[in-house]
Every structure is written in structure tokens, then in C-alpha cells.
Amino acid sequence: MKDTPTQSVIADSKVSKIIKSLAELENDLDSLNLKVADIKKTIITRTQKEIDSLKEQTTQMAIKEAESMISDARTKAEAQAKKISSDGTAKLEKTKAAIDAKFNEAVESVVSTILKP
Is the pTM of this model over 0.85? Predict the structure, then answer.
């Protein structure tokens, strides 16, 4: 059976429509690929901004925690230094009192040792 010219024209017309539809589909796919690439760039940019923001927040939190730890350590060290100073002053006063109490006795002992014939 031979194709008639009418059938050939109809077939060519259908093929043309299919080709046109495929070309439009290809254009739509290209357009979608571009949109996906743009969305990907946007997501990457937003993600990087969020990462940077979280890094900054984490850094600030770490700094505050470190400052708090340093402040606590400084307060404890100052309290310990005051206690040591207070203990030292008390021991010094005790030693001075002991020296004062034994001073006259020591002077008498030295004088008697020197003056012994």
C-alpha cells in the first residue's frame, strides 16, 4: 500500500507538531535548569550567610563564657589573695607580739652574758 500525498502531508504535519512540541519541551527544560541553578545559588548564598551568622553567634557565646570563667577565676584568686594576706598579717602580728614579749628577756640575757666576769 502506497502513501497518498494527503496521508504524507498529514504525517509530515504530525511530525512537525511533535518536533515543535519536543523543541518547546527542550526550551522548558533549559529554562527550568536555569531556574534550578539560580535557586541553587540563592540557597548556597543564604546557607553561607547563615553559617557566618552562626559562627559569629558561637564566637560571641564562647567569648562571653571565657570572660565569665576569667571573671570567676579572678574573683576566686582575689579572695584567696586576701585570705593569704590576712593570714600573713595575723602571723606577722603574732611574731611581733612574741618578739615584744621576749625582747626584755633577750636583752637581759645578752647583757648578763656580756657582763659576766
Answer: no
